[in-house]
Design brief:
alpha/beta, Collagenase (Catalytic Domain), three-stranded mixed sheet, 38% helix, globular, binds zinc ion
């Protein structure tokens, strides 16, 4: 598969003020567009856009644990972070459809550099079918958006929030994800805006 990355934007900046969504393997476009839209709504900034990149193939074999039959999230995130260094965008969100884990946890919905350039989410445990429930495309997309906003929040340095309605609340299970909103609480929103401004300023300063 081609490793060519095409940024569908026309920024003249050296570092585009954008969040790039990077499909790791074939990912349903409806979900990718829902994530793009959800990020724009949650972050709500005119100076920060989101875009969808061409799909790439991560080194899945190296991340696979045959005993657990799962993929090591940190190994894939490290690869995304490496790819992110060549992409001239503020943040990169990898979207994958395999079951992720980190040592000492049964699974993870995603992982992020906190703070850092990259984040990763998995769609594997977001489909209602995974829990023996009938398919529900809008619920599936809603869950993907919440996980995406949560991990991108981490990349800007936000930690977990104690407000169970806030998108930065830690999801121990899909029930927590369903219970929270796709938005930041007032306090996290104020913090994330401050942090985004700082990172945008830093990116601009590097260009000058
Ligand atoms: Zn988290
Ligand atoms: Zn919060």
């Amino acid at each position: 598969m081609s490793q060519k990355l095409v940024i569908r934007s026309e920024y003249s900046f050296s570092i585009a003020p954008a969040i790039a969504i990077l499909p790791l393997g074939t990912i349903d476009h409806q979900v990718l567009y829902a994530i793009k839209d959800g990020l724009s709504k949650a972050l709500s900034r005119d100076d920060l856009s989101s875009l969808i990149l061409e799909e790439v193939s991560p080194p899945l074999r190296e991340a696979y644990n045959p005993h657990r039959q799962q993929f090591h999230a940190t190994k894939i995130l490290t690869w995304v972070d490496h790819v992110a260094r060549d992409l001239r965008v503020l943040r990169v969100l990898g979207v994958i459809d395999v079951d992720l884990y980190v040592p000492y946890l049964n699974f993870v919905f995603g992982e992020a550099k906190c703070p850092g350039r990259s984040a990763l989410i998995s769609l594997h445990r977001l489909r209602p079918e995974f829990y023996g429930e009938p398919p529900n495309a809008s619920l599936f997309k809603e869950r993907a958006v919440k996980e995406a906003v949560h991990e991108i929040g981490h990349t800007f340095g936000l930690t977990h929030c104690t407000n169970s309605n806030c998108v930065m609340f830690f999801s121990n299970s899909i029930l927590d994800t369903d219970a929270k909103s796709p938005y930041f609480c007032a306090s996290c929103e104020a913090r994330v805006h401050k942090l985004i401004s700082w990172f945008l300023g830093e990116a601009e300063a590097k260009v000058l």
